[in-house]
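tool_log.txt
---
The assistant was asked to compare two proteins side by side. It first ran the structure predictor on the initial sequence, then on the second. Raw inputs and outputs are pasted verbatim so the downstream comparison step can read them without reformatting.
(1)
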Amino acid sequence: MNTPSIFRNHPLSDFSMAEVRAALQDQLNSLDQKLARGPFLVTPIIAGSSEKHGKFISREDPSDKGKTIANVDYATVEQASRAVAICQKALPAWRARTFEERAAIIERAGHLIRERAAYFTSLVIREAGKPWRDSDADIAEAIDFCIYYAAEMRRLGPPTLTEQVLGEENYYLYQPRGVVAVIAPWNFPLAIACGMVAAALVTGNTAVFKPAEQSSAIAQEMTKIFFEAGVPGECLSFLPGQGEEVGRALVENPAVSMIVFTGSRPVGLEIISSAASHPGQQGIKRVVAELGGKNAIIVDEDADFDDAIRGVLTSAFGYAGQKCSACSRLIVVGAAYEPFLERLAAATQDIIIGPSKDSSSFLGPVIDEQAYNRINATIKSATDLTILAQGSLPEDIANKGWFIKPTIFRDVPESHPIWRDEIFAPVLACAKARSFEHALDMANNSDYALTGGVFTRNPENLAKAKEEFRVGNLYINRGITGALVCRQPFGGFKFSGIGSKAGGRDYLLQFMEPRVVTENTMRRGFTPDLSS
């Protein structure tokens, strides 16, 4: 086997320690004081300068609809076009910098985020509605992306001699693709955005970054970190705005060489089909797209039920199920079905639902009103299904934020939309399998192939799962969320997306084009008359 990387992940905070809790609480209090003076003002940043035109959209705390976190000045199509042109003009100088220089800048960005980790954690808690542990993990992952991709660029940067040949030198090297459009999601508002931007820049591309509308303040603070670390203003543009307008303008701009997108399947497929060719393009746009999942956990009759209950609940309901890696299908084998569901239903009642700023909250709100209405409509429409369990929602918060009870359906047919379609919500569908082989067939019978999990102590079933459970990230006897950079590179296939795994050894290669330079070194002498 290959030698493992010497990279080390940034440690997660231990909130069981009183001093660690107090430090984050102090930062949350400071953020509240700042917000009392007024919300964040988020504006487009082009060539290093903020640009305002007054089309403000308010962004509220998902836990407290009455609390405005940011007023966002949406970018226009004209600004998007100008931002791309500026980044295109700045490309040669940024590309000409050594890979060591670019790696040092991105590494410095990671160190700056580490120094302000509590600040970023508090902002993710308030703007994205993520509970403490999920927000802390988000910031740790952003740090990891910067440090890991800087190290990877140092590995990939030096030209490589392909073969020792007498009289000839052949070098294999990489060049950046050009201007990269980064279109980021809200559910990992710092981590995923930071990883995509860092990858684009460290490989020598310039980047135009459009964050999700729901997390623009976090994205603006991250953009400022890259500038502080040493990224020239002309090499990174920040364009908060609507995907239907600014995102589409970036996808269709002929000067954009690559699009990196994380989001919904319909939008991703539209980007893939739209990006191929537009008048004025000098090449085929490269698209990397992560599009979600409908992930299953299998529990067999030999499983440790204590571990499995914990793994299923954290995977299904962490961050209110708003992770593309979340468990949304539970498959229980044979005689284990009824006793496991009985224990699962009881455990669901112990889930603590509350505002994300409360350290005790496990399940916070969903992201916004649109998601709240869509999820409630989906649950209410499933009148043909049996609800196994729903969590308890305290009355004092029920109408204050966008809170939805964790909901578990039992005996869900494979043909049902609740089983088949990604909901992105605290909703879990359960079904019984006749055998472990049948469970694998059920798990694999999906349009998606992102994550999956198995709880078993049966050696034969472990071997079968490793061979036949065909997902990008398979987890055995643990939860299926929380992939770590380098340790568990993340990404899937089928309709879960296209491209290599984020946080893995292949990821940066997507942002570069390989070249080979061959030189005949058998010189026949110097001809001064031809050199003038």
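(2)
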Amino acid sequence: MSFNRRNRDDRSCRIEPLEDRRLFAAGALDTSFSEDGKASIDINFGGITLEASDVAVQQDGKTVVVGKFALSATRSDFGIARLNVDGTPDRTFGPQGNGFVRSPVGDGGDAAASAVAIQPDGRIVVVGSALQESGFDEDELAIARYLPNGTSDNSFDGDGVRTLDVGNFSSWSYANDVAIQGDGKIVVVGRTYRVPNDDFFVVRFNPGGSLDGSFDGDGKKFIGFGDEDEARAVTIDQTGTPVTNPHYGTIYIAGNASFASSNARVGLVRLNPNGSNVDSFDGDGKVTFAFPSRGKTFVSGVMAQPDGKVVIAGHSGGDFFVARYLANGGLDTTFGGLGTGFASTDFGGSESSGGIARAPAGGSGFFVSGTSGGFAVAKYTNDGRLDTTFGTGGKARVAGFGGNARIAPGPGKRITLAGGAKFATARLLDAGANVVSVSPLFNSTAHEAGRQPASLFVYRSERLPVPTRVFLASSGTATAPTSPLLVGRDGSDFTGWSNLLIIGGGPRFVDIPANQTFVELPITPVDDTRVEGNETFRLTVLPSAAYDIGVGSGTITIRDNEVTALTATADAYVRDGSSAGLNFGNADELQVRNASGNNRRTYLKFDISSIVTTFGTAKLRLFGSAAGSGSVAVSAFGAADTTWSESGITFNNKPAPTGSALSSQTVTSTTARWYEWDLTSYIAAARAAGQTTVTIVLRNLTSSPTHATFASDESGDFRPQLWLTPRFTVSPLTPLIQL
């Protein structure tokens, strides 16, 4: 026996970290499962075949497939396989360590599993039919329960297996579906022959395997629609709690009424938790439905929705169909978009449906699976319309696999299909599956002062039971450490880079742990003595075949506590004379001059709201020169008015300076360089008074034949700055996103 993974062995899945391709559209095959989204099981000795009939996904993301292990046309056993999240066989499952269990059931040597359900404690319940040669040589309901490792659970009916002649001396009983109640009781539905017709049967077992006598008096119930009838699917409304949901515990059974006749139609039954019919549901607890003008109609699945509504799925006239019933048994005409309560879906061929499942991982809508030249699946919105964000117009196919696919939600934002020969299994992506991102999320600024850290978070869109390896590249002006042992001595600006692992000479990566959605990468600055200004560290997610990319990069700013520069929020110069009414706010220079009829002053505005503690010095820095021979004495003043705008200020409306000069500097050289004015006391007093903005005015108090010219904000380089030296910090940022 071998598990096929598209021409490769069953070693752990390899990752191709740099392949630049987008794979993660809803409806696409999940290539993290068996490398191409498909897996199957071959039997390596003659005459033995496998046929899958149902699939379930465990809470840990592993996939359980059940069906028939056939030795010949007349001899078969239950077959159960379990796959790891990556599609490899689960070597912890089964007595032979190959991920497969062959389980003889009954004494006639002919048994087949039809459905599977997983208990919350991980035990696996499988139902089907088994030939019993003792007594009346008939097929009976067969149920088996297995421990999570695949061995028989002997606490169930003494040996893990039970067969039941449901109809008492009937010719046959076939179990088709199973559901597990919140109290551990097991509900099984199917078809049994009771003279003169086949009927639905419903059987409820206690957790230990005995019949539950509180269910319809003896644990069994039969429902007929007057002809050959077969229950195909069961679901239990267990949304919310018995207090919040008046329909909690309601049992819905759907199947085929008169399945052998040209009048084949859907039969739908609603039962109270004790097994009695819900009489408010169409008067007697059951309804029938035939899709108009399409011939035979068959059901494959049933799903409870809020408010007592129930959705059935099946096929009719070669197309999928879905329909929704209200709590009173009437069709819900708001469903399907046509005002009828039902809708059909054509894949372009002759389709048969296999099952229904609600969208996984908190998603919206539901899926119907089946076959149309291979596995086929359609996604619907909650109101029964095709969800066009999935596949092509709401539909997707899996080529190369025959058989009628059954469906299970998960793991994560995925759906899993199984059916047909060789236990064929496929996994498709739903919207938002395995999207990874990197972002600061909370605080994007770290500070040398006090070595205050900030963090980048690498996160994924879904909580998975396996880790996700995310490959990253770094950039920015901050120097990363070359080794954790050399931090600070190798010129590095921060620690934390050592959290990112390296494979040989390959890209750095982090692993988001199993059952978590993110990993935090703290970036802690090195408090050095270098004057560097503010620097940045940036991480970018590299493409990989293992995920799609959401927020592709995130940046941390590291504030230098040697010098922190605030740039001007507005700057302009003004002129008197014939230019007194003109604005020069968009000029690439600032001018200062004192000459008769040709005075020029510069106005600067700074936002100082980020300064929250004491600092050493605060100096205005301008890059400029004298425009001609001689020198220009430039004095800095404060101004109370901070409401002026860069595009509106003129000599006529300029704010008046207040008090005496704060600081003076003589501009002497015709070669441009940096000049500084000490504003420490003025800025400290402004912050102490609660000011968030200051205006600085530059004037020449003595007459001069020349003028001083400085680079403005519009120059692009050497912009006006307010430099602050040690003991300066800024206020923390407001969280951007909550995890």
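---
observation on (2): The two ends are 45 Å apart (CA to CA). The helical segments are 680-688.
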